[in-house]
Known about the structure:
Layout: H1 2-18, H2 36-40, E1 70-77, E2 83-93, E3 97-112, E4 130-145, E5 150-163, E6 166-181, E7 186-200, E8 204-205, E9 208-209, E10 217-225, E11 231-237, H3 247-251, H4 259-269, H5 273-278, E12 281-290, E13 293-300, H6 301-307, E14 318-326, E15 329-339, E16 342-352
Amino acid sequence: xxxxxxxxxxxxxxxxxxxxxxxxxxxxxxxxxxxxxxxxxxxxxxxxxxxxxxxxxxxxxxxxxxxxxxxxxxxxxxxxxxxxxxxxxxxxxxxxxxxxxxxxxxxxxxxxxxxxxxxxxxxxxxxxxxxxxxxxxxxxxxxxxxxxxxxxxxxxxxxxxxxxxxxxxxxxxxxxxxxxxxxxxxxxxxxxxxxxxxxxxxxxxxxxxxxxxxxxxxxxxxxxxxxxxxxxxxxxxxxxxxxxxxxxxxxxxxxxxxxxxxxxxxxxxxxxxxxxxxxxxxxxxxxxxxxxxxxxxxxxxxxxxxxxxxxxxxxxxxxxxxxxxxxxxxxxxxxxxxxxxxxxxxxxxxxxxxxxxx
Length: 358
């Protein structure tokens, strides 16, 4: 009982600690969807509790006894020949100690190296040199149920990044809680993601190491399955620590020719209250006639507002996917469109080693 109170106290006070760490900076690959199903659900979901081990990348509290000895591999063909993927394996110790070990990576590809004057660094115009850019995160997760309905969990994530000669490493921590009420087919989750710091920046200057913030995020989600129809609805709220999600305000400093033009532009482009509130939401719907098949569609309003262009029709903001169990393997596919002709395709395969016992 004392342990349960301590864990609940930590979860209550963590949001106040985390407010001081808000911001966007390095290691943003941690926000990429780790599986095809997460991609189909708009990029993130912290509340679905149906023993999909890939959801541990979003909420460590979603580990259960059903994820014991489950292994999953995920791969995505992203934009501009960028590839990313993940792998995860779950295990249970005793009756209430659930763990998983996973990795998430992104490979930006091979780049032709040039000087600022567009010459080969070797000095020989016939000799080309290349460099690579990659990010890697390691996930060590633990979860423990406090009761039949509440589970708490945490993830420790060492992070490594290398862009040509520039290297960085750091760590992040996720803390989450999951609530499941099987009587009414309802589940919910709360997660504080990417609390951490760089231990080594990409470069140093006269002031020493240059450190940047991690993509901290507070997410709250709820999922409701209909009792007499094969549909499940999810609502995920993200970036709850920050109201203004306007792209310019979040990612770049404004530059202006005159203060009059700046004020006019701000008033014209400033999102309204409901638009801004809706940018914090991801809506997902799944058709789930049984545990071995699903079809998912989702809408991410922030992505829609940031990627849609006047004069061009696209499905930016929407994502789609499906999964089916074939023999002893769960196979999934997800598709996200960012603009016409710019699609990301994601594939997943998972199985339980328990099914291969002789």
